[in-house]
From TrEMBL:
Superkingdom field: Bacteria
GO molecular function: hydrolase activity
Alphabetical keyword list: Hydrolase
Protein name: Cell wall hydrolase
Domain Cell wall hydrolase SleB: 109-206
Domain Peptidoglycan binding-like: 30-85
Keyword Hydrolase: yes
Annotated source species: Paenibacillus amylolyticus
Length: 208
């Protein structure tokens, strides 16, 4: 009775776990919404704090995901949307998470374009034939990324980092094929400085 009274006072719908798992929509607050927001964040669709409340921001994120997946974009996370979301996280989650962590560690102070650019360098290396053939192997190749070497890779990535990783995985490449980048203000490697610069985004020069 007390829970119901609180919900009525706040104007919220408190969903039972079974009901929440079947259909989530605006006005619901539950652990299932927490999971939904975390999954949307991991896929780069949700860039607000995880609250467990299904408000307009969550609704917009669900609608964006639905549009990207060719689903009916009603902003309601029903069984079809939730199943598709689970499939995408399972299929792409670890790769996306690793790339987001690298982007956050290497470029969290950069613009969104600058963050996508760092992710694109990883993808360009995978496709180049000059580096390992998987994203994970490129990221963890010894001595290649400062964030991996100094532990910044282990920081928790933001939703923006996940979104930048998603764009890079989808083919966005502001660098036009760069394989390297460095900050000319702090770089000490003469080899890096000797390579022709393709373009500069924020603090990073991108090279081949």
């Amino acid at each position: 009775m007390l829970l119901g009274a609180c919900a009525m006072t706040l104007g919220l719908t408190v969903a039972a776990p079974s009901a929440g798992a079947q259909k989530l929509e605006q006005g619901i607050r539950s652990e299932h919404v927490v999971q939904l927001q975390e999954q949307l964040s991991e896929l780069g669709y949700f860039d607000a704090g995880v609250t467990g409340y299904y408000g307009s921001i969550t609704q917009s994120a669900v609608r964006e995901f639905q549009q990207a997946q060719g689903l009916s974009a009603d902003g309601v996370a029903g069984p079809v949307t939730l199943n598709r979301l689970n499939q995408k996280v399972k299929a792409e989650g670890e790769t996306l998470r690793q790339l987001a962590k690298l982007i956050h560690g290497e470029a969290r102070g950069e613009s969104f374009e600058g963050q996508v650019a760092v992710g694109a360098v990883v993808l360009n290396r995978v496709q180049s034939g000059e580096f390992p053939s998987s994203i994970s192997e490129v990221i963890f190749q010894k001595g290649q990324f400062t964030a991996v070497d100094d532990g910044q890779f282990n920081l928790k990535p933001t939703a923006t980092s996940f979104k930048a990783a998603r764009q890079a995985l989808n083919g966005a490449d502001p660098t036009h094929g760069a394989l390297f980048y460095y900050n000319p203000k702090i770089a000490t490697s003469e080899w890096s400085k000797s390579r022709p610069t393709l373009l500069t985004i924020g603090q990073h020069d991108f090279t081949r």
